[in-house]
UniProtKB/TrEMBL annotation:
Entry-linked CDD domains: MTAN
GO BP of this protein: L-methionine salvage from S-adenosylmethionine; nucleoside metabolic process
Record GO terms (molecular function): adenosylhomocysteine nucleosidase activity; methylthioadenosine nucleosidase activity
Pfam families: PNP_UDP_1 (PF01048)
InterPro entries: Nucleoside_phosphorylase_d, Nucleoside_phosphorylase_sf
KW Ubl conjugation (keyword) present: no
Protein name: 5'-methylthioadenosine/S-adenosylhomocysteine nucleosidase
Keyword entries, A-Z: Signal
Amino acid sequence: MRFVTALLMMMAFFLAGFPSTKEAARSHQKDNLPIAVQGAMDIEISVLLKEMGHYKQETHGNYTYYIGKIKGIPVVISRTGIGMVNAAASTALLIEHYHPRTIINQGAAGGHDPKLHVFDSVIGVEVMNIGRLRSEHLDDGQGIRPKTWKFVETEMRENGEIKEYAAFKSDPALVKAALRAAPKYRHGKVVAGKVGSSDFWNREVDRIQWFHKNAGTSVEEMEAASVAQVAKGFNIPFLSVRTVSNSEVSGDKIEALVTAGRYCAEFAIEIVKAMGTGSLSRLAN
């Protein structure tokens, strides 16, 4: 009897160090959920589709999704459409239908940092809605004073409480994976920075410099902040990656939207490979 009791105690002690069968199954299932990669335009996803080779195409509303694999890794490619509303709507549908384990929002962007040149890429450690602004009262005839406008934080309801976010952070483990993939990028330098989003294409140098100084933005585009907000609402890890297609402040005289979109998609493929099928905890180590 003593032998049986001791044996049972040893088995219980041994099994205590391992997850239950159900826990292991859940962990395996989560690791095999797809990595979602978004691009607003065809030029930002065409390289990804070519890399997949064979894929299934599905459409929900006006938004299209391509389901397949990259190097054996399950992925879903999302063509969001241009702009904050399109990006938010397509992301919500992406999460509802495909349950991605992570979301990578990538594509071309305009430069804000004068040290960044066309084809340099930014890993967005933070993304910010730079279109959320408040102006103070001015009387009729006093004109407009954009440089006096104030940024407004984004409100979200979490567990019944209102929380405010000046910006949304990319998942640290995904940032680390992107930094590991950075040496594979051959078209310019890769830096960690801040991505600004709004439904506005800024070409005024003073305005761009104002954003860079007051918000700390490296680049600007039209989707990432709304994607990050929706991902935050559903607790889906998020990463922003952008390649500079044009800059009014760096001295570059070229505008290469198509090429920058292709280069960023190629970089996104390397990030997907760096992530593989492992868990975020493994990526963080």
